[in-house]
Amino acid sequence: MLVNLKEILKFAGDNKIAVGAFNTPNLECATAILSASETLEMPVMITHAQLHETISPLTLIGPIMIRLAEKSSQLVCVHLDHGESLDYLKTALDMGFTGIMYDGSLLDYEENAENTRKAVEMAKAYNVGVEAEIGVLGGREAGASDADNAERLYTDPALALRFVEDTQIDALACSFGTAHGIYKAKPKLDFKRLAKINELVKVPLVMHGGSGCSEEDYMNAITHGVRKINYYSYMARAGVTAVKEFLEKTEVTFFHELAACAETAMKKDAMAAMKIFGAS
Fold this sequence. Notes:
It contains ten helices and eight strands. It is an alpha/beta fold. It has a single domain (5-277), classed as TIM Barrel. The radius of gyration is 18 Å and the shape is globular. The two termini are 23 Å apart.
């Protein structure tokens, strides 16, 4: 069942859980995630990051994501992740995406806020919620990590409050120690900072770079207002690991055997994460 960002975040808030948001740059990722959601009977978000445009164009994968979400028995939000231009956001909205994220975190505050306000105004016509980011996460969606170079990049709680008030967004992605990609060392998350942001900001919080954290970290984040956890890198790596092991043990003739192997492994990894995110 296709639902919008505001609906699925309200469900998470009412139940004091976080909804997993999984990047799905190909069909195997999408079917793995939706199968995990249906097996566990849990809501989920399938997302497309603009950085994956060269891997899987939005115009190709987007309609597939929407159709699969419509057929699901569970609540599914189809969300644009890290949209960096308003034109790209509009393409997703016109296509039927039910959530969008504008990422102007690398811009100065005023330009980020101005573009975010435009995104919010644009999304109103579609009844779609908007997520935006203040502070800079380590790495980007491609996989690099600079989590050790941190303090100056973390979200300032007072600035987070100003940003939410200035833009009227529906969800705030904040930086408190997570990083995109594979962690080179155990992440050190600043939960005091997250707690202060949650105290000041009255919208759901979003944890990017969520894969690779400990169960304790996830639960602490949820306790402090995180209602959406982005998860991809470790799920994708689980698919690669399974394929490597499969090739070592089996004489493989057809590519679809590898795709099926990766999909099964990604589903298993996603289910483990979703069980933690949904433990109220």
